Amino acid sequence: MVCMRVPVFGLMLLMLIGCGKKNEFIPARDTAVNNSQTPPVIHPNDSVSYLALGDSYTYGAGVSQSESYPYQLAAQLSSQNYLINSPRVVAFQGWTASDLLAGIKAANVTRKFDLVTLLIGVNDENKGTDFTTYTLQVDQLITQAIEYARGYHSRVFVISIPDWSVTPFAAGMNRAKIKADVATFNSINEAESKKLGASYLDISAISELAANDATLTAGDGLHPSAKMYALWINRVYGDITATFTSN
Protein backbone atom coordinates (compact mmCIF):
# COMPACT_ATOMS: atom_id res chain seq x y z
CA MET A 1 0.00 0.00 0.00
CA VAL A 2 1.04 3.62 -0.19
CA CYS A 3 2.52 3.44 3.28
CA MET A 4 5.45 1.52 1.85
CA ARG A 5 6.47 4.37 -0.43
CA VAL A 6 6.10 7.31 1.97
CA PRO A 7 8.85 9.30 3.78
CA VAL A 8 9.18 9.35 7.53
CA PHE A 9 6.36 10.80 9.55
CA GLY A 10 8.22 13.96 10.49
CA LEU A 11 8.58 14.86 6.84
CA MET A 12 4.90 14.24 6.35
CA LEU A 13 4.03 16.74 9.04
CA LEU A 14 6.31 19.35 7.53
CA MET A 15 4.58 18.91 4.19
CA LEU A 16 1.16 19.02 5.83
CA ILE A 17 1.78 22.20 7.78
CA GLY A 18 4.03 23.92 5.28
CA CYS A 19 3.83 23.94 1.51
CA GLY A 20 1.75 20.83 0.78
CA LYS A 21 -0.63 20.96 -2.14
CA LYS A 22 -3.68 21.60 0.05
CA ASN A 23 -4.51 25.17 1.03
CA GLU A 24 -5.64 26.07 4.52
CA PHE A 25 -9.20 27.36 4.73
CA ILE A 26 -10.31 29.96 7.24
CA PRO A 27 -14.05 29.44 7.71
CA ALA A 28 -16.42 32.38 7.70
CA ARG A 29 -18.54 31.31 10.64
CA ASP A 30 -17.80 31.74 14.33
CA THR A 31 -15.70 29.25 16.27
CA ALA A 32 -18.06 28.61 19.17
CA VAL A 33 -19.02 25.06 20.07
CA ASN A 34 -22.75 24.36 20.47
CA ASN A 35 -23.59 21.08 22.15
CA SER A 36 -27.22 21.19 21.02
CA GLN A 37 -28.24 18.19 18.94
CA THR A 38 -30.14 20.41 16.49
CA PRO A 39 -27.75 22.21 14.15
CA PRO A 40 -28.74 25.46 12.44
CA VAL A 41 -30.30 25.17 9.01
CA ILE A 42 -27.95 25.90 6.11
CA HIS A 43 -29.62 27.31 3.00
CA PRO A 44 -28.14 28.06 -0.41
CA ASN A 45 -26.37 31.44 -0.21
CA ASP A 46 -25.30 30.62 3.36
CA SER A 47 -21.60 30.09 4.13
CA VAL A 48 -20.35 26.53 4.61
CA SER A 49 -16.96 25.71 6.12
CA TYR A 50 -15.52 22.25 5.56
CA LEU A 51 -12.82 20.16 7.25
CA ALA A 52 -11.63 16.92 5.60
CA LEU A 53 -9.67 14.41 7.70
CA GLY A 54 -7.98 11.29 6.37
CA ASP A 55 -5.15 9.68 4.46
CA SER A 56 -4.12 9.51 0.78
CA TYR A 57 -7.72 9.17 -0.38
CA THR A 58 -8.56 12.50 1.23
CA TYR A 59 -5.25 14.10 0.31
CA GLY A 60 -5.86 13.17 -3.30
CA ALA A 61 -2.78 11.11 -4.17
CA GLY A 62 -2.58 10.52 -7.90
CA VAL A 63 -4.86 13.41 -8.90
CA SER A 64 -4.69 17.19 -8.89
CA GLN A 65 -5.95 19.17 -5.91
CA SER A 66 -9.18 20.18 -7.64
CA GLU A 67 -9.86 16.53 -8.54
CA SER A 68 -9.63 15.21 -4.97
CA TYR A 69 -12.95 14.36 -3.38
CA PRO A 70 -12.95 17.18 -0.77
CA TYR A 71 -12.43 19.75 -3.52
CA GLN A 72 -15.00 18.10 -5.77
CA LEU A 73 -17.49 18.17 -2.88
CA ALA A 74 -16.76 21.86 -2.28
CA ALA A 75 -17.20 22.57 -6.01
CA GLN A 76 -20.54 20.76 -6.04
CA LEU A 77 -21.74 22.76 -3.04
CA SER A 78 -20.61 25.96 -4.72
CA SER A 79 -22.50 25.03 -7.90
CA GLN A 80 -25.64 24.82 -5.76
CA ASN A 81 -25.02 28.36 -4.46
CA TYR A 82 -23.58 27.48 -1.06
CA LEU A 83 -20.84 29.94 -0.16
CA ILE A 84 -17.85 27.67 0.38
CA ASN A 85 -14.15 28.31 -0.03
CA SER A 86 -11.35 25.76 -0.26
CA PRO A 87 -11.74 22.99 2.34
CA ARG A 88 -9.26 22.61 5.16
CA VAL A 89 -7.55 19.26 4.59
CA VAL A 90 -5.60 17.37 7.24
CA ALA A 91 -4.45 14.22 5.47
CA PHE A 92 -1.41 12.58 3.93
CA GLN A 93 -0.26 9.43 2.15
CA GLY A 94 0.34 6.40 4.32
CA TRP A 95 -1.41 7.74 7.40
CA THR A 96 -2.97 5.32 9.84
CA ALA A 97 -5.56 6.35 12.42
CA SER A 98 -2.70 6.94 14.85
CA ASP A 99 -0.87 9.11 12.33
CA LEU A 100 -4.01 11.14 11.69
CA LEU A 101 -4.45 11.78 15.41
CA ALA A 102 -0.87 13.04 15.54
CA GLY A 103 -1.35 15.02 12.33
CA ILE A 104 -4.40 16.79 13.70
CA LYS A 105 -2.47 17.72 16.83
CA ALA A 106 0.49 18.99 14.78
CA ALA A 107 -1.79 20.98 12.47
CA ASN A 108 -3.26 22.74 15.53
CA VAL A 109 -6.74 23.09 14.05
CA THR A 110 -8.55 25.42 16.43
CA ARG A 111 -11.49 26.63 14.35
CA LYS A 112 -14.90 25.00 14.01
CA PHE A 113 -16.63 23.89 10.84
CA ASP A 114 -20.10 23.35 9.42
CA LEU A 115 -19.16 20.07 7.80
CA VAL A 116 -16.51 17.43 8.63
CA THR A 117 -15.61 14.27 6.71
CA LEU A 118 -13.39 11.43 7.92
CA LEU A 119 -11.93 8.64 5.77
CA ILE A 120 -9.32 6.52 7.49
CA GLY A 121 -8.26 2.90 7.95
CA VAL A 122 -6.78 1.56 4.73
CA ASN A 123 -3.22 1.79 6.04
CA ASP A 124 -4.28 0.26 9.36
CA GLU A 125 -5.71 -2.63 7.33
CA ASN A 126 -2.51 -2.90 5.28
CA LYS A 127 -0.18 -2.68 8.29
CA GLY A 128 -2.22 -5.04 10.44
CA THR A 129 -3.30 -2.70 13.25
CA ASP A 130 -5.19 -4.81 15.76
CA PHE A 131 -8.93 -4.25 15.83
CA THR A 132 -9.14 -3.15 19.47
CA THR A 133 -6.50 -0.46 19.00
CA TYR A 134 -8.07 0.73 15.76
CA THR A 135 -11.53 0.90 17.32
CA LEU A 136 -10.26 3.10 20.15
CA GLN A 137 -8.43 5.40 17.71
CA VAL A 138 -11.42 5.72 15.38
CA ASP A 139 -13.56 6.52 18.39
CA GLN A 140 -11.14 9.35 19.24
CA LEU A 141 -11.14 10.62 15.65
CA ILE A 142 -14.92 10.68 15.36
CA THR A 143 -15.17 12.39 18.75
CA GLN A 144 -12.69 15.04 17.62
CA ALA A 145 -14.57 15.45 14.34
CA ILE A 146 -17.78 16.09 16.27
CA GLU A 147 -15.99 18.73 18.34
CA TYR A 148 -14.80 20.40 15.12
CA ALA A 149 -18.42 20.35 13.92
CA ARG A 150 -19.46 22.42 16.95
CA GLY A 151 -20.86 19.35 18.66
CA TYR A 152 -23.34 18.58 15.87
CA HIS A 153 -23.06 14.83 15.35
CA SER A 154 -25.15 14.86 12.18
CA ARG A 155 -22.67 17.16 10.43
CA VAL A 156 -19.88 14.56 10.69
CA PHE A 157 -19.60 12.03 7.85
CA VAL A 158 -17.45 8.92 8.07
CA ILE A 159 -16.72 7.62 4.57
CA SER A 160 -16.03 3.93 4.07
CA ILE A 161 -12.62 2.63 2.99
CA PRO A 162 -12.63 1.81 -0.74
CA ASP A 163 -11.96 -1.77 -1.77
CA TRP A 164 -8.45 -1.51 -3.19
CA SER A 165 -8.26 -5.24 -3.86
CA VAL A 166 -9.67 -4.57 -7.33
CA THR A 167 -6.87 -2.19 -8.35
CA PRO A 168 -3.86 -3.06 -10.54
CA PHE A 169 -1.64 -2.38 -7.53
CA ALA A 170 -3.10 -5.45 -5.81
CA ALA A 171 -2.13 -7.79 -8.65
CA GLY A 172 -0.25 -10.76 -7.26
CA MET A 173 -1.54 -10.13 -3.75
CA ASN A 174 -4.21 -12.06 -1.88
CA ARG A 175 -7.16 -10.06 -3.20
CA ALA A 176 -9.73 -12.05 -1.25
CA LYS A 177 -7.96 -11.33 2.03
CA ILE A 178 -7.61 -7.63 1.22
CA LYS A 179 -11.32 -7.42 0.45
CA ALA A 180 -12.25 -9.24 3.65
CA ASP A 181 -9.92 -7.12 5.78
CA VAL A 182 -11.24 -3.86 4.31
CA ALA A 183 -14.78 -5.06 5.08
CA THR A 184 -13.81 -5.76 8.68
CA PHE A 185 -12.29 -2.32 9.19
CA ASN A 186 -15.34 -0.76 7.57
CA SER A 187 -17.59 -2.64 9.97
CA ILE A 188 -15.68 -0.99 12.81
CA ASN A 189 -16.04 2.42 11.16
CA GLU A 190 -19.76 1.92 10.71
CA ALA A 191 -20.31 0.69 14.25
CA GLU A 192 -18.34 3.54 15.83
CA SER A 193 -20.14 6.09 13.65
CA LYS A 194 -23.53 4.83 14.77
CA LYS A 195 -22.43 4.65 18.39
CA LEU A 196 -21.29 8.27 18.38
CA GLY A 197 -24.11 9.63 16.22
CA ALA A 198 -22.08 10.42 13.09
CA SER A 199 -23.26 9.55 9.59
CA TYR A 200 -21.65 6.61 7.80
CA LEU A 201 -21.43 6.89 4.00
CA ASP A 202 -20.64 3.66 2.16
CA ILE A 203 -18.77 4.11 -1.14
CA SER A 204 -17.16 0.67 -1.13
CA ALA A 205 -19.47 -0.83 -3.75
CA ILE A 206 -18.70 2.10 -6.05
CA SER A 207 -14.97 1.55 -5.57
CA GLU A 208 -15.36 -2.01 -6.85
CA LEU A 209 -16.41 -0.69 -10.27
CA ALA A 210 -12.69 -0.12 -10.88
CA ALA A 211 -12.33 -3.87 -11.41
CA ASN A 212 -13.83 -3.47 -14.89
CA ASP A 213 -13.06 0.15 -15.72
CA ALA A 214 -9.43 1.27 -15.82
CA THR A 215 -10.46 4.94 -16.04
CA LEU A 216 -11.62 4.78 -12.42
CA THR A 217 -8.07 4.30 -11.15
CA ALA A 218 -5.35 6.98 -11.15
CA GLY A 219 -2.10 6.55 -13.03
CA ASP A 220 -0.39 5.03 -9.99
CA GLY A 221 -2.62 1.98 -10.31
CA LEU A 222 -3.86 2.30 -6.76
CA HIS A 223 -5.72 5.48 -5.91
CA PRO A 224 -9.05 6.59 -7.37
CA SER A 225 -9.10 8.78 -10.47
CA ALA A 226 -10.97 12.07 -10.65
CA LYS A 227 -13.77 10.16 -12.38
CA MET A 228 -14.05 7.76 -9.45
CA TYR A 229 -14.07 10.59 -6.92
CA ALA A 230 -16.90 12.20 -8.90
CA LEU A 231 -18.90 8.98 -8.48
CA TRP A 232 -18.25 9.19 -4.74
CA ILE A 233 -19.62 12.73 -4.64
CA ASN A 234 -22.70 11.70 -6.60
CA ARG A 235 -23.28 9.02 -3.97
CA VAL A 236 -22.79 11.12 -0.83
CA TYR A 237 -23.89 14.62 -1.84
CA GLY A 238 -27.58 14.14 -1.14
CA ASP A 239 -26.94 12.57 2.26
CA ILE A 240 -24.69 15.46 3.25
CA THR A 241 -26.97 18.28 2.11
CA ALA A 242 -30.00 16.57 3.66
CA THR A 243 -28.50 17.37 7.06
CA PHE A 244 -28.38 21.05 6.19
CA THR A 245 -32.14 21.29 6.73
CA SER A 246 -32.69 18.51 9.30
CA ASN A 247 -30.96 17.17 12.42
From TrEMBL:
<dbReference type="InterPro" id="IPR036514">
    <property type="entry name" value="SGNH_hydro_sf"/>
</dbReference>
<dbReference type="Pfam" id="PF13472">
    <property type="entry name" value="Lipase_GDSL_2"/>
</dbReference>
<feature type="domain" description="SGNH hydrolase-type esterase">
    <location>
        <begin position="52"/>
        <end position="231"/>
    </location>
</feature>
<protein>
    <submittedName>
        <fullName>SGNH/GDSL hydrolase family protein</fullName>
    </submittedName>
</protein>
<keyword id="KW-0378">Hydrolase</keyword>
<dbReference type="GO" id="GO:0004622">
    <property type="term" value="F:phosphatidylcholine lysophospholipase activity"/>
</dbReference>
<dbReference type="InterPro" id="IPR051532">
    <property type="entry name" value="Ester_Hydrolysis_Enzymes"/>
</dbReference>
<dbReference type="InterPro" id="IPR013830">
    <property type="entry name" value="SGNH_hydro"/>
</dbReference>
